[in-house]
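Input chain follows. Return structure tokens only.
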Amino acid sequence: MGLLFCIIVLVSFFSTSPLVESRSLLPFSKTTVLDVAATLQKAKEVVSFDPKTAAPAFSQEERSVSSSAGSSSSASTLSLQLHPRISVQKNKHSDYKSLVMSRLERDSARVRSLTIRLDLAVNGITKSELKPLDKGSEFKAEDLETPLVSGSSEGSGEYFSRVAIGKPPSQVYMVIDSGSDVNWLQCAPCADCYQQTDPIFEPASSSSYSPLTCEARQCKSLDVSECRNDTCLYEVSYGDGSYTVGEFVTETITLGSTPINNIAIGCGHNNEGLFIGAAGLLGLGGGSLSFPSQLNASSFSYCLVDRDSDSASTLEFNAPLPPNAVTAPLLRNDQLDTFLYLGLTGISVGGNLLPIPESTFKIANSGDGGVIVDSGTAITRLQTDAYNSLRDTFVKETKDLPKVASVALFDTCYDLSSRTSVEVPTVSFHFPEGKVLPLPAKNYLIPVDSNGTFCFAFAPTPSSLSIVGNVQQQGTRVGFDLGKNLVGFVPEKC
């Protein structure tokens, strides 16, 4: 009897401990196939793609599909198209490798921005306590459906949505950003504006433009604000050298054919940084000034198309998670309400759970750590020990693939130039209640040139903050149920 008891205890321990690799009991394949030939063909095509000679982003067919979709759904459902940047602005790079290097450089700046913001919050430092920018001269004189575009050509990793601002409406492309709250766009007159695809917005031409007073609730919700002649001025900086400064106002934003009035938005007269192509930004974060919060949306979701693609997907509001969604807890950080935290419990390779303590993915009492889902970061970042475990296991399971030297932040790369396809172990995210999200191979083995060099698309970070990036999200509808505090993933639903 004593021996039987010991056996039962040991079986129980090894079946529940997150620190021990276990035999896979998962309902999906332990391996997945990467189409090398098709991926390289896309890489070659994206370098020469010119959006001016391609089909328009909003074709008549696309508009009619959106309209018919709206007639059969809830009146409160809002949907916008999303596009990769390649659909908005012509790539400036002569070869695919230089494009990738530009993307990775910008991605590193993005990650620094996010980790700096969390560090400030954890240490109780508000942005208003930091030295402000020199502002000497910047203030001279049916369904709703919008497209989502990816930010490939300038290495940004962002995706764009097409919206209309003001009355009468002016169409512009806006970056969508789940790591930001404040909505803003460039406005005339410009003290300093970067290049954008559409004409600069003219506040004087809009009848719905209304400056906010310094006592307005929205003004008081800003991290950094000033008051001038009882007009609220805002400043947002992103930690990577990007910033926007101007008046904080309310405006009408039109999604499809539906106007939404009194949305608080920054009207930036002094803007600089990494937003080239877009007129501004729609913040999808968890704070009170974000676009979903101002809509009082019960949920929102997006599906990010391949960054090397010129196709479109959608950003949707108030649409429930489908029954087949793989769900995980949507967590909140008391120190920083902007970031959207994911209840990740583990990662597996080839069906075997890695020996990573669950505490690695948890938000600490101080507000440090945790895992966020971010639309603006390209490559998923993991704490160094977690990354090493993931990489070492993947390398062990891919011994038959020829390795090559590291490329930029990628330390695990392969020469697949002689292959048309390759079978690799499935990498999966694990969530509470035994829920699992297997990733397609193209979401973690990506080309870094057009000659057949592919790299394992995860990276270590010295920060305690882990980030699920958009390369790992591509092709999957990612939804946030704000009422039930759930994140849902539905593969192949763009």
